[in-house]
Write a structure and sequence with these properties.
Chains A, B: Keywords: GTP-binding, Nucleotide-binding. Chains A, B: This is Septin-7. Chains A, B: It comes from Ataeniobius toweri. The structure is a homodimer of 285-residue chains. Chain A has 285 residues and is α/β, with parallel strands linked by helices. Helix content of chain A is 37%, strand content 19%.
């Protein structure tokens, strides 16, 4: 699985945002998940951010292109899937609403990838402010007709309850930490402030656990399905239509496509190393 | 006194930053201080932020212009001083360093106004992160030759100790709040998080009290002096030089000046309503 995130993990540069890939192998109960995270350091930090989304669009398209090429091969048994299954878009915790760049970015992304909006550094918002901010963001997302990832409704009542619980919390407010702290003789991942410890995995403090469970447990398969059935099919049909219509080769068609499409970036793709057992790990999460 | 701040108090718009003035009358021990705060809502929020500093430059210049005009009048007794004495520049608590826009803005400001860099929403940085972030920012300010407000050295040893204490804490990390909360049966201004209360006026939590005392007590007079003797004199001599050199009228010269000058914005000007006692309140703080 590959995730594109708009979080800025590294120091800022004057250059426009580039993408940076890193892979993590998650093991749980004998099941392995290779998670690929595509970061976009420096995104939105320039004075002029026009077209700062282009490297991300290009990255998403290139993964679709790779997949299309491997689909056309004679031997399709070992087809790696490095398509982007999800884009985590981090919104600054301003407390005001979306910035023009947020709107522009998500609108250019939403027909290419599953966009999941998040509130970054949520430990700077009090619960009341956070609640207000979430409402404001969802209102603006609707107003601007931004199509974020739609959590599927099912016939299962319990599942619907879970989906409703997630939907009510959108955009998920998250806090990150790479430090383990001892709180009441329990070791937790958190941020140690002079006034207390903000715990990443405490649902009273932020929505991180909801995000994690949704991404790698409850909705991973749906993110993959939507990517394959909607976003990839859109890419494929437009690409092939261009080839047929213009009667030109793939490369030429690609050039034309990239100027015609008004869609966008952000990334999340799932790489599945099938374990020794040969079982599809998705089923076990 | 008038302060320009780059904090975004209001909701974002697609328009470039404009300035908004508000006045507060502070009373303390019979002394009145009329503080004018010039906010720049939406600063830096557009997709393309080129020249987003222009409205602030224009505002600073217009206040210098007003002062220059009233200096030229026959009756100079009632000369209102609405010049900008200080610019509080808020840096986002990214933990990484300055963004290109921060550098560009401060470089365009520093020869027009006393720039004081601040870290906004500092309650999202742990003490260690804050320390690191401060060092990184000061390093970059030096590297890029940004001239922030220079705290004056004096012959008084105690005063020098105070100045050293402030300098060591630059850029000051601040937290804001308009809520009063009860903590250990004491009413404090703070932010109530599920993990504790970040107190605005607790020096273990942030540098707000240092900023307040510096602005309206210890360094107010110096901010006014530097504005008058350095920034205003620069403006005045350039302005008069242009008139003399070009032999044109003020208005025309103004148009030429504003395209030639590569300086900047941010605001802080002191309005002194002289009390009934006729004493200059500055002396009493």
């Amino acid at each position: 699985m590959t995730v594109v995130s708009s979080a800025n993990f590294r120091s800022f540069t004057d250059e426009s945002a580039e993408v940076e890939q890193s892979k993590v192998l998650i093991k749980e109960g004998g099941v392995q998940l290779l998670l690929t995270i595509v970061d976009t350091p420096g995104f939105g930090d320039a004075v002029d951010n026009s077209n700062c989304w282009q490297p991300i669009i290009d990255h998403i398209d290139s993964k679709f292109e790779d997949y299309l090429n491997s689909e056309s091969r004679v031997n399709r048994r070992q087809m790696p899937d490095s398509r982007i299954h999800c884009c985590l878009y981090f919104i600054a915790p301003s407390g005001h609403g979306l910035k023009p760049l947020d709107i522009e970015f998500m609108k250019r992304l939403h027909e290419k990838v599953n966009v999941i909006p998040l509130i970054a550094k949520a430990d700077t918002l009090t619960p009341e402010e956070c609640q207000q901010f979430k409402k404001q963001i969802m209102r603006e997302i609707q107003e601007h007709k931004i199509k974020i990832y739609e959590f599927p409704e099912t016939d299962d009542e319990e599942e619907n309850r879970l989906v409703k619980k997630i939907k009510d919390k959108l955009p998920l407010a998250v806090v990150g930490s790479n430090t383990i702290i001892e709180v009441n003789s329990k070791r937790v991942r958190g941020r140690q402030y002079p006034w207390g410890v903000a715990e990443v995995e405490n649902s009273d403090h932020c929505d991180f656990t909801i995000l994690r469970d949704m991404l790698i447990r409850t909705h991973m398969q749906d993110l993959k399905d939507v990517t394959n059935n909607v976003h990839y099919e859109n890419y494929r049909s437009r690409k092939l239509a261009a080839v047929t219509y213009n009667g030109v080769d793939n490369n030429k068609a690609k050039g034309q496509l990239s100027t015609n499409m008004d869609t966008v970036e952000g990334i999340f793709s799932w790489n599945w190393p099938v374990g020794e057992s040969g079982v599809n790990p998705a089923a076990s999460f």
